[in-house]
Amino acid sequence: MAAKQQSIGNSEFFVNQPVSYCSKCTSSIDQNHQSNIRFNNRLYHTNCFTCGICHKNLSDSTNTNFTIHNNEPICAQCKQANAKICYACQKPILTGGLITFDTNVYHDDCFRCSQCQKLLTYETKLNKHNSKPCCAACYDKKFAPQCSQCLKPISTDKILTCDTKKYHPDCFRCDQCNRSLADEKDLYEYNSKPCCYQCYNQRTAPECAKCHKLISVGKILKWNENKYHEDCFRCHQCNKSLANGNNYCKHDSKVFCSECDAELFAPRCAQCLKPISTGKILTYDTKKYHPDCFRCDQCNKSLADEKDLYEYNLKPCCYQCYNQRTAPECAKCHKLISVGKILKWNENKYHEDCFRCHQCNKSLGDASNFCKHDSKPFFSECDAELFAPRCAQCAKPIIDKYTAFKNKTFHPNCFFCVKCHRTISSTEKFYEDKFGFVCSTCGT
């Protein structure tokens, strides 16, 4: 079927197109009805041809200026109300071109340098300052950072920074060998200027304490205020590498692995003669022992927890073994005194129970009233009874003072006058008759 052309304003519409539904209400549409409207290749009922925002009917001939928004017709009023605002003049952009810069939009004629107002529409090199466009000349002159190497402005997007200083990518080079540092991840500085890793190491590398060469490459190991090549940090004794371990020790400013340090410098156990490198050290009589090696030399009993220690043949000994091997012989029973109290008398030693009076067999214990006779102990009473001189008068033993006359001994009280029974003193004169002694008084 032939289409009939119809115009509203400046827009053309085609009526009676062979489309079976309305693009607005989606209901069926009479293809033969002359009032149907085609817009933007879509078919509308006359009443459905409305503004997509305010829904005003646009089929009236007075609505001559509308446009497309989201594939729907928009009236002139809504077009202006929804238009983007120019960042420069703050007016809506209704006609003409639209330029976007740094998320902001501009009229073609408003897109100018914020400093000199030069039109930038056809410029290929643009810069930004305070979110506003700036021509290359103004930006370089007023705002571009200065390269610390060539002292020229850096107008490119890429700026390299080292220690707060700015550089062109091509100017960012090693101050020593001129090698480019633009793609380097690790940066170094020498005399306040950028420097590559190799040049930095050559000029600042420390001396290895082992080989005395500069550590210009590779890992630097620090120990005891000295620095080493990784391969030079070795045990002074066995030359084993110590780079990856913590088990090393210092001796005379030299480094040793823990095994060599123990073998060379650790105290030796007096029993097994091996070094005591770890754990507790037990000391006895200036000698060192492993806790498990500190045992009785006679019975092998552990002495690690013993409080009282003994020595036999210059080696540690438990109390029982010490007593068995060093106990004295009892002068009475002739057995060893290995336990209990030892009593000493007259350069002899006795069991406490063996130290008894040789006559009555009573225990002398700690008694002080005993005597010696023929190297045997006696209670003083037994000693007197057996060995003391006898009184010629009473025939009893004389323990203390006595009076002697004609090879006879008397208790002082037994030497008396037979007439008056008065004791005759040692300084007094007396005489003897057939009845006994007579004092000087009774003899006159």
Structure description:
One of its GO terms (molecular function) is metal ion binding. This is LIM zinc-binding domain-containing protein. The strands form 15 sheets. A two-stranded antiparallel sheet has the order 1-2. A two-stranded antiparallel sheet has the order 3-4. The chain is built from six helices and 30 strands. Mean pLDDT is 80; it is low at 1-17. It has helices at 76-81, 136-143, 197-204, 258-265, 319-326, 380-387, and strands spanning 4-8, 11-15, 37-39, 42-44, 66-69, 72-75, 98-101, 104-107, 126-129, 132-135, 160-162, 165-167, 188-190, 193-195, 220-223, 226-229, 248-251, 254-257, 282-284, 287-289, 310-312, 315-317, 342-345, 348-351, 370-373, 376-379, 403-405, 408-410, 430-432, 437-439. By secondary structure, it is of the alpha+beta class. A hairpin with a 2-residue loop joins strand 23 (342-345) and strand 24 (348-351). Among the domains are: 1-82, Cysteine Rich Protein (Ribbon); 266-326, Cysteine Rich Protein (Ribbon), CATH 2.10.110.10; 327-387, Cysteine Rich Protein; 390-444, Cysteine Rich Protein (Ribbon), CATH 2.10.110.10. It is rod-shaped. The longest helix has 8 residues, at 136-143.
